[in-house]
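Dear U.,

For the methods section draft, I wanted the exact inputs and outputs in one place so we can describe them consistently. I've listed the two proteins in the order they'll appear in the manuscript figures. Please don't edit the token lines directly; just add comments below if something needs changing.

First protein:
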Amino acid sequence: MISLLRHVTFSASSFSRSVSLLFLLAFLAGCSSTKSVPQGDYLYIGGDIKVTSPVPETNTKALEPELNAAIRPQPNTSFLGMRPKLWIYNAMGGNRERKGIANWIKTRLGEPPVLLSEAHPDRVQANMINRLYNNGYFSPTLAHTLDTTSKRKMATVHYEATVGRQYTIQQIQFPQGNDSLSMAIRETEPQSLLKVNDPYNLEKLIAERLRVNEILKEKGFFFFDESYLIYHVDSTLNNKVNIYVRIKDTAPDKALIPYRYQQVSIYTDFSLGDTLGDSEAPVQYRDYKYYPDEETFKAKTILNAVFVENGDLYSRKHHLQTVNRLMDLGTFKFAEVRFTPLDSVGLSGRLNADILLTQAKKKSIRAEVQTVQKSNGYAGPGITVSFRNRNALRGAELLLINLVGSFESQISGDSARSGLTSTEVGADAEMHVPRIISPFNIRIASSMYQPRTRFALGFRFINRKEFFQQNSFNFEYGYSWRQYATTEIQLNPVQVQYSRLMNPTPAFEKELAQRPFLARAFDQQLIIGGNYRLVYNTLGIAGRKHQLYISPGLDFSGGLWGLFYRVKNKRPADPENPNTFRGQALSQYAKFDLETRYYFNLTEKLVLATRLLGGYGLPYGNSSVLPYIKQYGIGGPNSIRAFPARSLGPGVYNPRALQEPGNEVSQSFSYFDQTGDIRLEANAEFRFPLMDPYLKGAVFADAGNIWLVNEDPTRPGGKFSGNFMSELAIGAGAGLRVDVQFFVIRVDLAYPLRDPTYPNGGRPKSGLFGTGVLNLAIGYPF
């Protein structure tokens, strides 16, 4: 007991000394803060505002943040009463000229003192009065007092504001004339942002002008501008205002009338410096003049992306929609609509519209030698030869043909898995058609972006020398379109995939015989179904503090065909007696995926990036297990980085505990075992610059696992249960990124904090650095 009391007394004494030392440092830092303050001036340490009103219902507290934002300048950066940046500035010589490293520290890490002479309270008061007027508080009174201490040479400015009753809107009157512009403005009145009895607010008045201008631009007023609207405000009433919306007398005549298209012409081979009058004779297609002839582009196809027609009123939406869709075709480098007003007698209010298109290079071929790195841990050299035709059928169709080949070895921290080789060759072709091709007449006219129909056909041959060979074929037919800049929809109603296992080695066949679940996953697979994905993405919007990416997806197979088969054969589906298509068993499953990413940009260069991945695959009918190509794996450089690729799960299953000693095939085969039907993964990464602009650093943490839907006796502990949180693998680490804009080289060193295969969520005990996993990858993990 005495020993314990001594311990407590000692700790209290230490704490007291620490607090005293902290206050001493704060005092010394405060003293040194004024070292660079000129004689007769003060260090400005901030200002505050207090708002009062004789009117009890006035919300003065709501006004204080608005007025506080007008206080200038910002004082020196402080932390717990200390000003470290100012202290560094003074320590490095203050106002004296310095060179070399001292000057770099002073200017980059330090901060000069903010002086009272820079505060200008009278100017701040004027800005506050403007803000109060803008919010309907007319005739306020403002005053300020200085709080200075000559001993410490510091000063604070205290502002005081007194406001009366806030003015509200009593009447709103739009232009009363019978001219076309006045009548068009009056027609917008029901949707007005200005409402009777609302408080007077300048920002709302500005927004109302913009709203009216947007509507007028859709009604043909091509030359109108919001600056031609003016407000007359009568504030002589008792805390009420009447607002009169008027058209400026100085507005030009052409801004007062709506415009229609007289002639729309399309130039599909325009170059900068061309003179339109020198073009060849046009093809007359419907009401359009089309240059040149249809040997280059079919007029019908191009006009699917054109939303301006002869006789139509000018519409800004249709104007921008035309430009966006033409650029979205991918066939043109530039697209512009040039307008020419016609001033001839009888043609007042008429425009000619010339659509000028500059073609991109039609065909290209490219060969790339690259390092292939896959989520399954295989890495090695690869080559891709790509052919691209941007106008394959004279309708802006994009044709892509890729020939691929690679030789890969599996790189893993597990010696049993290292050295496995895989050879892959294949070819695929895609055709992107810039319209919806379907049995129904579908035209998505409201979108600013061009919808597409996609056809894809591919073949792959994989030779994993130690195990098997595999052929796979795939075909997809579907659509993609963006309703908004941040939202894309991908719908593939037809998805056919067929894979066939060939020439398995005896050792591989033996392992499959011992693992019936995995054997069924490797059976000949026929997938007939479809998939759907929605992408919401704000990552491309610059300047946003919060950026979000959300992508849910649905993948299914065998539903409609299985229903047809059951009705035809009058019997339910059964994995032992499966439904077939031309003698081939049909895979039946439904699979849902969700990926979310959230980026919090603390500053322009400091980013907290997070990701959450979830997936659930449900085999049914014919299938008791998902096809192998549809199963989830976890771990690796783009997943949980503290564990090699596909070295986790399912659940707490530990293949090492079941392996026969000395059986190298069985040990390396565990790679195929560690897949599942359910995935849950979360990642967080803090990114920061090290040496601008190319070298960046990161610290990160990852967690997750995979599980099985159905019990597999050969993989004990793999089924999903209510204890899944205790079965999560957790890792953390740090990394470097060499970011040269067009590519990123990434090195991450990660350590496992929890391994679900160890008792009570432990981890390997092989030393401080012995359990680390070094990941070398291209690109950011998310």
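Second protein (the one for the lower panel):
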Amino acid sequence: MSERATREENVDVVWSGDWVAERLGVALEGDGDLRELLGLALRRNPKRAHLLVSNVLGKHVPQRPSVVYGAGYGLGERVRALLGEEEARRAVVLGYAETATGLGHAVADGLRDAPYLHSTRRPVAGVAQAGGFEEAHSHATSHLLLPEDPELLAGGAEASTLVLVDDEFSTGNTVLNTIRALHEPHPRDRYVIVALVDMRSPADRDRLTAFAAEIGARVDLVTRSTGTVTLPDGVLERGQALVAAQEAEQAEEAEEVREAREASASAPPSVPAPAPVTRVDLDWPAGVPDGGRHGFTPAHRAALEAVLPDMAERIAGALGGGARQGRVLVLGFEELMYAPLRLGTALEQTLGADAEVRYSTTTRSPVLAVDDPGYAIRTRLVFPAHDTPADGPGDRYAYNVAGAGFDAVVAVVDSTADTSELHAPEGLLARLAAHTGQVLLAVIPSYTPTPDPHSQESAVLPEPLRGPDFSSYAPEDVGWLLQDLSDTELEAPTEEREEAIQSGGAHYAESLPVEYQPSAEYQALFSAALETSAARIARAVGTVTETVLAERGPRPVLVSLARAGTPVGVLMRRWAQHRHGLDLPHYAISIVRGRGIDATALRWLAAHHDPVDVVFVDGWTGKGAITRELAAAIEEFEASGGPAGFDPEIAVLADPGGCVRTYGTREDFLIPSACLNSTVSGLISRTVLRADLVGPNDFHGGKFYRELAGSDVSVRFLDTIAARFDEVAGQVEDEAKELLAADRAPTWEGWAAVERISEEYGIHDVNLVKPGVGETTRVLLRRVPWKILAKRGAGADLTHIRLLAEQRGVPVEEVDDLPYSCVGLIHPRYTRGATGADGKAVKGA
């Protein structure tokens, strides 16, 4: 884009620095377009009161993405011309966090073939520091250099030119600190400093010249505009006093407004419903970093450029009709500036003249907001940090977004920042939703380098799969921490699987049973059972959720054990949202009996959430095998060096076995989600763990049975139960209070019963005894059943059990003294000779 077009974009009748200049006597002088590039604001900072606010940086002032990108790219082209093509190809570009991360990346693009790295304030476990330095005037000083390739910043006789990029060159202290820190261990002959504006005093200019002579290197400077800021004596103290006075005045005005509203009406004023938040799957290219925190190579650049149009189309497709012709803001996140910027430039091209696309990012920097045309920061949104920062929790800000008339906001964050704080009632998404008609959330996978310093291969933790691309659940309902094996042939006949499993030739998780296709009679039975039990299930969902919120709140991270736990996790999430307005994160994770939990998935959870907040969720307990498996797996995970803090206690809908202390009920009743397989679980298979398919850094596998969509009742199951939430709310409140005050210690009654049954029936293997309605259903659907033990007098809860048993020729034996409604017995010492040609059990085999 031409500089003339850029100037036309920023022309305003009133200079956005007048307010500060008039009150503090701050003067900004320089070449022709300096005032078009910069405005002034005030900030609460003990080192510098004023803030130069750039109109083309894309940090504080929403601007056309093409203007922001063009400003950096143009500077990069000038550096390329300065160095010459050969040296430009060997240069390394270093940008500064947080404001110049996107600018520096655009400069690297302008050089065309230069790798890029930016400093960061986010330490990353397992990544060694290649250096660090301090930023003297900043509110958050420490900069870390964390390149994946330790040779990126290496110097020596043949060292490449280092190009350092910042938004402004004010005193030169930060750049000098950087060069000094890097030059001593890795000397080089040439440095180029790049900035949008050079605001140094004559003394500062002389200091840079002397510094270059001292280290014996050439130091060039490339800037877009040059000027000076004149600060009168006492400006810091006067600025701090002005900020304090303005904040006090604004607080008083806000209180007066609140009191006036309370006095003028008995009922609170109607408040428009907040905009909906919709998650957009970008399909970010695998292996491409989210930015330059650990380095970004020309190969990464080419891969990203190739898919930008497709990602923009996905965003455009998610925008409502009004937004597609209105004002759209692409909002980045602190250091994550470049990726949102490029999405913005691509969206600008996709939507064309029909829409007005703008770009800016959130920031750590606290700046005073004054709603005056002569002030650069008109409005301010405040929200809590949502990426678990190393320096602890604190406020973050989005400027000039409220009141700007955006029809939609596309919030772009990395997956490390996709936390419960982001989705909280006072979080960023909620703050945005109050000021626009639509909020889209696009999450880019956080890049995690390999911890091996000698490896040149990048290791990226996989990202969760979401519907509709994987599962029939809505994308916000659950993120599946699985890898998609939908195109892999994994199914084997039930009898072959059973013989292989019992003979020790294969593990049950290495293959999948053929998906049961329910008959019309069985489907009708499911429908009847769902209607009959919906209120009872809703009560159990509410009770277990309220217990979790009371004991593990305020914003637990729900992690269901795929797949039986997943419908329960979705329902718990819906209860928390419906009753408390909480948008709880929910993921599904694989655990395999005898093999443990998915360690890669645990590492992903630890990288994105505090492990202490994770609550594991399952559908029901049988004899408690998975409860024991999870406890042992978490202990082994931590002992092997995995992040600590995960609580292995499981929250379940029903605990007939007395195996856990967090449950909705201990009754053994029919949970309709146990009646079916994938068609009530988002069309997802049971999980798969096989060495030739799942590598050490892969999630466990699963299949999405798209072809069964015509039989899918997953959403119907959820909606039917959620529709009863209000009806059972009073009962849930009472039951939750009783449970929280009760002794809920596990009794392990179920385990004792299973051991007794195993011996009485000559099975001698507790793994072949499956207690409870849910587990018995699984035996009939997925294993080779021997017989069913039914509690004498059990009623409608076992109707579907009796039907399945009849269809498979399995005897049902009525027994007394059973702590469960029923128990399914898998055929012991199984061989295929134990079934007839029709697949039914042969009695007495």
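Candidate sentences for the figure legend, describing the second protein: The two ends are 81 Å apart (CA to CA). Residues 1-12, 136-141, 452-459, 831-845 have pLDDT under 50 and may be disordered.

Thanks,
Y.
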